[in-house]
Amino acid sequence: LYPEMVFVLGRMGNARQALRLLVERVGDVHQALAFCQEHQDEELWEDLITLCLSRPSLVAPLLEDIGAHVDPIKVVRRIPEGMRIEGLRQKLSKIIADYHLQMSLREGCSHVLRSDVVLLGRRLGRLQRKAVR
Questions:
Q1: Average pLDDT rounded to a whole number, residues 99-103
Q2: Half-sphere exposure (CA, 13 Å, Cβ side) for 114?
């Protein structure tokens, strides 16, 4: 019954209430992440982080997948000192590895984009010179 309630609340524009239902009643962080991604609302992401940090059992699943959607530093800095999180070391290692992968992909895309700009600029120059002659 909860997935239907979440769907209806989301359609009615009560995304925050739907997110709260997903986290507090269902306890499904992965579904909550998908919900936030679907709605693409910065405040909803903040609400998700706040809701999960209030329940230590939800922090570990949050750390597993949030790095692709939100700056993981935001989450890590908000973790209360002394909170015990199972598998924290592995999750932080994964976050760092994912971050390095994202940076590598961005650098590769940037290099390809610069190469394309140079190539297309040269081609445009040649075509413009042909048109003048």
A1: 86
A2: 6
Q: What is the dihedral of CA 11, 13, 15, 16, to 10 degrees?
A: -150
pLDDT digits (tens, 9 = 90+) for 43-69: 999 999 999 998 888 888 888 878 777
SS3 letters across the chain: CHHHHHHHHHHHCCHHHHHHHHHHHHCCHHHHHHHHHHHCCHHHHHHHHHHHHCCHHHHHHHHHHHHHCCCHHHHHHHCCCCCCCCCHHHHHHHHHHHHHHHHHHHHHHHHHHHHHHHHHHHHHHHHHHHHHC
- For 71, the token pair is 């700056």
Structure token pair of residue 105:
């992909």
Distances from the Cα of 41 to the Cα of 10, 16, 119, angstroms: 12, 10, 38
